[in-house]
Amino acid sequence: MTDQRRQLRALVDESQTPDGHTYLLCAAVVDPKSATLRSLMAELEEEARTLPGNEIHATVIARNPRFRVRLDTIEERIRDSSAVKFYTAVRAPIARNAAEQGRQICLAQLAVDLVTRHQVGEVVLDSRDGSSETKQRRGSQDALDIATLRELMGEGRLPRTLRVSHRQDRVHHPLWLADVGAYAVQRTLSTGDPTRLSRLASRMELREARVQPIAQREEGRPLLAPNGLELRLSELLTVAEQRAAARDRELGYATEDQSVVDHASERLHRARQQLDEVIDQMDRWEQRRGALPPLDEYVHPQHGREHER
């Protein structure tokens, strides 16, 4: 293992589109010993002192008109700092009420990418386990992540030297960096508006999940059909540029004729409606056929307060 791999740490947080059709994990990759990271976190912690809960949670900030503009400032601070070497996000289409399956699929792909493509030696995930009482009643959600990663290590897809832990973002504030990135991608996927993502786009990569945990594989039929999504997102700089790209893909050529643009926009709108109908039909099919494995098929390993490998 190289010195660089030992040094790089991936901070991971989740998001989900409001329609429930897409699960997303986003990693912010940093050098934890970097003075630049310490400087950025000092600025963000100062910013957080006047935000709800004294924390940075992009969804909470964006919902409050009083604080929404502060999220712009936070994104700009991250953009202008070299502390985050790059962002990488993985998404998976999911059926309704199948967020956990979507998470494990995303985690499998993300972990493999972080190690094989980006030489990361440590992964820190935002913990989903609350109080010990809640964990005892509902079971450990963090343990599901550990089970997936152990499967991949057993297959040789991940090195057993990879360090993995779950931390609470209220204690481990660098996880805020992943939260901001995940929200920016989620907004673009759910609304088509890349305004927030544009500030981070030069360092953002979005990939479709293709690596499945063993527990979710089905002989002869993949849970996910790859749709070719594997993009650099630097092109998503403004709403106008995104619309122009969509127009050119639809028309096959560029045009300034407004009537032609309006006609193409209407065709794109109808196509999106048809796609939504197809997704709804797939959801119903999955629910009837039971293609998604139930949650209790996961292995629940023994665990402590923090899970480390």
In short:
The protein contains eleven helices and seven strands.
Describe this structure in words.
- The protein has 309 residues and is of the alpha/beta class.
- Helices cover 46% and strands 15% of the residues.
- It contains eleven helices and seven strands.
- It has a seven-stranded mixed sheet with strand order 5-4-1-2-3-6-7, sandwiched between helices.
- Helix 2 packs antiparallel against helix 4, helix 5 packs across helix 7 and helix 10 packs across helix 11.
- The radius of gyration is 20 Å and the shape is globular.
- The two termini are 16 Å apart.
- The relative contact order is 0.16.
CATH architecture: 2-Layer Sandwich
CATH class: Alpha Beta
Low-confidence stretches: 219-242, 289-309
Q: Radius of gyration from the CA trace?
A: 20 Å
- SSE order, one letter for each helix or strand: HEEHHHEHEHHEHHEEHH
- Envelope shape: globular
For the residues shown, what is the average pLDDT?
76
- What name does CATH use for the topology? Nucleotidyltransferase, domain 5
In DSSP terms (H or I, runs of 4 or more residues), the helix count works out at 11
